[in-house]
Amino acid sequence: MSYTTERISSNKMKLVFTIPAAEFAEAVQKAYLRNRSKIRVDGFRKGKAPRFVIERLYGKDIFYEDAVNEWLPDQYDHAIEEADIRAVDQPQVDVDWAAVEPDKDVTVTCEVYVYPEVTLGEYKGLTVEVEPVRVDDAMVDARIEQERQKLSRSVEILDRPAAEGDTVNLDYTGTVDGVAFEGGTAEGQTLTLGSHQFIPGFEEQMVGMCVAEERDLNVTFPENYHAAELAGKNAVFHVKVNSISATELPELDDDFAADVSDFTTFAEYRQSIVDELTKQAEDKRRADIENAAVLAAADAAQVEIPDAMVNRELNDMLQDMNMRMTQQGYSLKQFMEWTGQTADSLIAQYRPGALSRVRQQLVMEAVRKAENPEISEEELEEEISRQAERMGKPLDEFKASLTDAQRESLKELAQTLKVIKLMAETAVVKEKAEEPEAPAEDAEQTPEA
């Protein structure tokens, strides 16, 4: 086999093959034998017409394209492997058919997009901005409150009226102009006063009611209420309280600390929460620095990315998205219907992310090769252990299943992670200025009635 290679751009290669005349003639004969049963010629049974008769009727080149397609695939695969060409798409094949003769060598040109060459910019000592590490009393209190809520219990209230925060069980009937409306009647409804589940004024007027008490509540449906026939209408709800209960929370004391942790005092427990949240914030900061350094290095590099690579990444992203949705009980098609999106708009939305991911992958591969950090056997074993844990497989079983190529791939992953750590360690880190919080707006919620 004779061929030449030429890089015609940073992401495209040209391979020119020469098919020897004898091999082309053999390929033409194979094409004839494979296709003759599909060709009908008057005077001959189907599949029995001689080749020269078919060529006389349809032209001598009738089998040329099939002959090239017969010869080329194996030769092309061998060539890109031999020349270490990393193709990212199927080749575009071109033949000057007018110049093809059965007794002459045939020239076939293939142009194929390949992994592009990356011209690295700066990737060490880059300036990156990240959120500051922040752990305040409100965050600690919220974390402790989560544990406190787990130990809460519901207590029935018999000796006082309902107060905000209590949960009431009630029956109600709603009317507009004295006429009951659809969805306005319920029995045994549970409602936490102050939760704003019902239209404005409903819950507020229930505060102070006692068990077995009945009352008429005068309310007005919001102008933007989902049922247009009720929007803006005045309504009366006749309600009856069946029961009242309150959530009882444990005191935040040493006993509480002993119940939810291994600590014997609340002060020790609270400090452990501070330490835990601080570590989480610092871990996130390190990850943010690494991500920002990779993004900055990708922005500083020059690389021409073939559409085929972006399309493949985009397809992987959408398939992953569809799989996650399927696990949650709905499909990507349903998601598009609910959000008013089309396949084209979804592709347009996710394509920039796919392009960014491919760019980062290519740049980090180039950085890894440029740095080529040493990976000890111990470091490789640590990476293998992490992958086994991530895949939920026993370490010994996972190690035994690895091929040499897979071990090499994990070694390259360990190198990449080591390089990213280097980039983060050399980065000049600036903290983003905290933006002032926007004033909170009360979200008006409409009732289930």
In short:
This protein has 449 residues and is α+β, with helices and mostly antiparallel strands. It has helices spanning 21-35, 51-58, 64-82, 137-150, 202-206, 254-260, 266-300, 307-327, 332-339, 343-371, 377-390, 395-401, 404-426, and strands at 2-9, 12-19, 92-94, 106-113, 118-119, 127-130, 153-156, 167-176, 179-192, 214-220, 234-248, 302-303, 428-431.
From the structure above, extract its key features.
single chain; 449 residues; alpha+beta; Alpha-Beta Plaits; Chitinase A, domain 3; Trigger factor, domain 2; 3 domains; five-stranded antiparallel beta sheet; four-stranded antiparallel beta sheet; 13 helices; disordered C terminus
The CATH topology name of the largest domain reads Trigger factor, domain 2
Give the overall form. Answer: elongated
Strand content: 15-25%
Q: What CATH architecture label of the largest domain applies?
A: Orthogonal Bundle
Query: Gyration radius, to the nearest Å?
Result: 36 Å
- Assign the CATH superfamily of the largest domain: Trigger factor, C-terminal domain
Order of helices and strands: EEHHHEEEEHEEEHEEHHEHHHHHHE
Helix segment tally: 13
The rounded distance between the terminal residues' Cα atoms is 79 Å
